[in-house]
Sequence to fold (388 residues):
Amino acid sequence: MSRQGRVLVAMSGGVDSSVAAGLLHEAGYEVVGVTMKTWDYETSLGGSGVSRAQSGCCSLDDMNDARAVAVRLGASHTVVDIRDEFGDWVVDRFADDYLAGRTPNPCVLCNTHIKWAALLKRADALGCEHIATGHYARVRERAGRHVVSRGLDETKDQSYVLWGVAQAHLARTLFPLGGLAKTEIRRLADEMGMGHVAGKKDSYEICFVPDDDYRGWLRRREPSLAALAGGPMVWSETGETVGTHDGTPFYTVGQRRGLGVTFGEPAYVVRLEPETNTVVVGPRSALATRALTASGAVWGKWGGLDGETTLQARIRHRDPGAAALVRQTGPDAFEAIFDAPRDAVAPGQAAVVYDGDDVVAGGWIGRPAGADRQRPEDAPEFVALPTL
Fold:
């Protein structure tokens, strides 16, 4: 019997999750490794010009790396198949959001609806008290609630993508890397004898868009989108048609490059109107807004807000945040009014509000497709894949 109990560790084959498993092993936990197969990379890469070795994460090589780390730690390792659930909740929603003129955030969707439920279901089956991931974030209990906080390494902080994880799931979650910097992680990997992962590059692209070209991915998935080419591009200040575009799904709010039209000043995508296949462009000043509304909110540090509260609000993953007056407008909704205008507040992205380093709440800017869908109470069923 281990000193700390059993912990199920999500192991992607990268350096972060490998070191997370190593640290927990050293701390006296019995580590059980699991790698989740979320996407059929062998077939999805067809036609993209990208090899499996270039896919960035979750390839067969990554799975083998994860297994090698588990073997070194004396831990068991399993691969579980969640492709159906991942496709329904993450991939389909990703495509639907672009078609509806929104900018999706698949990592939040995966964490909220798939990854934690999947890990906990497997943890229960294997008698694990805890689950752990290699996220750069921290979690603690405060006044009966489980609070996610920023990771110590601000350049790697991932608290933004964790706002949707339910309280009951956070209660069993460990983030071993929350108090460490990336440079320390690579050093620890070497010291732990994990040289085969110590120098692996971080993956920043979306796992099911391995070439980081969502436009090409959309075109391959939805050939009918070619019919949208030639729609009007309109200048925000005058309403004048200034050109044509390739189709609203191929543009994002705040985009500057690749507009295909030359203006006398820098121009940005200000708004997308998929109903009329119109792309509205304008000067940077047209991007500025003082307010946003968020729906589908999940409350973190507190169970809600009592009146208006000044917090820090982030509007995208790498956004450092800005002061805003935040007011709860419903059980799962809030609005934020910024002290100063913010550029490119994009529908479909998440607004996450903080009290210091602590996540207070997160929600979807605007109302993305499928916001009214409710995840079933039962966690996804698992199909175990052969041991690698």
In short: Residues 45-56, 367-388 have pLDDT under 50 and may be disordered.
